[in-house]
């Protein structure tokens, strides 16, 4: 049994590094699709504003993608560094799945992102369109494989255990494990919605300040449209995730995210301060009967099962699971309300002229990220004490390394990542303040050949 | 059959290693060269040359890590805890330089601070990669299939030597790439330094070669012959590189250095086989079960040609000589890196 401090420190290190990493795919998957759509609109309509949008957003996308790549490299190696025993046991199943991610998705993105970012004017517009679409396709494929690997850890299938190693017996079942079918669309919609709020928030910023108004209108309209279409679907799928996989497969996760210890509460808890040792909540604020209504029993009699139904040694931490879920759920409720107001304003023709709504949207810019990280905390903290649910405990997956090294590197990562977060935020804020390039006269956009300066240099 | 499949996967891993050293080697080297450049234009050039390619180049180390994990989980689970500190420091350095490149590439000037982060990040990444290689070749203490050594075991005189050699290799590779790419900014300093660098590199490699104390059974027969031939090919390429080729501004240095890198690394891997984590862990002991290896060969292996194509295509699009630009010469909305290199005499559409 390894040192318990190494386990805790490794878990914290992993939590910090993966939460930081997750922030960037959460933005860039959706943005890459947005960019492909905008470039297609540029080719179709030839309106300068679409190229302006494309060029502005691809720069924010570029740094986000770079941060995703470098922090993702860290994750790959962390499996071996801090979780050597986990890596050894699950390598035969999760390794090939991540390997597929790298060769089918990651190289596709990394290969074509250079052309997408710097190809303007040196490759044909068709190559630009293809490259941009391939980057978007890569990010979707990437999401598919990553969710597949994680879903296998949540609902392992298609394997048998030989000498402490998971040996694949059916790749089909391993890749498409039972929870994959619901978790994948949940995640994909999540990242699309997250990027849409980011785009909407910045579009609203320009409208509010009366700058680049054409840019602001187009991006706001597009992104709010996306959100309005996807949010209802996301709420339905989120519900399915709970009903089809969390409640039947991982009851302890559900019990913890409801915040109940005993199984007699028909209400819905808003706030708790749980005492994991004493098996009760020190503080508990809730709405009576709401829990039963959510469970679709309007009589108010249906109680939510509590964590005491699970033996103590198999219980996840209630605090993180409860608040992870609340962060996701409340954020999605706020988004839903904001999207609804947006629809009302649009119908009244006031979408582009309501400063208060625009200010509200600016505040909502990062809300999708909050929801996604909350969702992941629920999924991962709720799976504890298992790393491979029902098969391998997290405590049995950690490497035997010196606690000192973990402390030092954990501190180094936290410091680096905080710096990077600041760099990223400053970069985005600066780009936004500077604004998209001023509107150009028609004709100079898209056809670079008219530019005499270039011809002069090339022939020089 | 299984043995052959494992060997097949082992060659995929070897390919990742070689591709990584060849591709990311030169862009790390360009970063290291930035440290010596006080001239803003040279910083700009290095950042521009790296910006269009580093994502693709760096992908190989990710594939290397994942291929090791998936195909040889026994080795991955031992080697990484053993090399914990250098690997993490390398990761931190890689993060810093990647962000510096991307943050600097979209502006019109490279601020000193980002230039410094780019340079130091590249240097630290190169040093730690050398330490990792040397630490691994020095041998890792293993008991019951698990790492049983100490945190600082990787730090040996030998690993310090390999670190120095790695830096020399990457910088030389960068000089060779500049020979092809640099069309406009005068680089007499790099050209002069390249000759000295090559001598330093050859010396470093020779010292590493003779200082390497392998404590495990040496291979015999055909294997030893192949390893020796590869080593000789690598040495010949290096000597040729040292003797000439820096004089005219052609692609010969890149070609020769690549031959040396490929032959040298393949030689070491052939010599080591079947040992994966020296001194004891061998390929069959650490390999994943056959069902995983089969999937890897078909699923991942068949994608390798595509991956090579993406790499080639990305470099192909940005082929040509470097053309420095001032901010006013750039069309609006275009990053300097987009305009940085142009095939000679190509017409702009």
From TrEMBL, chain A:
GO terms, molecular function: electron transfer activity; heme binding; metal ion binding; oxidoreductase activity, acting on diphenols and related substances as donors, oxygen as acceptor
Species, as recorded: Barrientosiimonas humi
GO biological processes: aerobic electron transport chain
Biased composition regions of type Acidic residues, renumbered to the chain: 439-449
Residue ranges of the TM segments: 12-39, 60-81, 93-115, 127-147, 187-207, 219-237, 327-348, 360-379, 406-429
Keyword hit for Cytoplasm: no
Protein name, entry field: Cytochrome d ubiquinol oxidase subunit I
UniProt xrefs under Pfam families: Cyt_bd_oxida_I
PANTHER family cross-referenced by the UniProt entry: CYTOCHROME BD MENAQUINOL OXIDASE SUBUNIT I-RELATED, CYTOCHROME D UBIQUINOL OXIDASE
Family: Belongs to the cytochrome ubiquinol oxidase subunit 1 family.
Keywords: Cell membrane, Electron transport, Heme, Iron, Membrane, Metal-binding, Transmembrane, Transmembrane helix, Transport
Gene3D superfamilies: Cytochrome c oxidase-like, subunit I domain
Automatic annotation (TrEMBL), chain B:
Locations listed in the record: Cell membrane
Any single GO CC term annotated in Swiss-Prot or TrEMBL for this entry: cytochrome complex
Record keywords, A-Z: Cell membrane, Membrane, Transmembrane, Transmembrane helix
InterPro entries cross-referenced by the UniProt entry: Cyt-d_oxidase_su2
Region feature Disordered, mapped onto this chain: 328-349
Gene Ontology terms, MF aspect: electron transfer activity; oxidoreductase activity, acting on diphenols and related substances as donors, oxygen as acceptor
Transmembrane segments: 6-23, 84-104, 116-138, 158-178, 190-212, 224-243, 255-273, 293-313
Protein family according to the UniProt entry: Belongs to the cytochrome ubiquinol oxidase subunit 2 family.
Name of this chain's protein: Cytochrome d ubiquinol oxidase subunit II
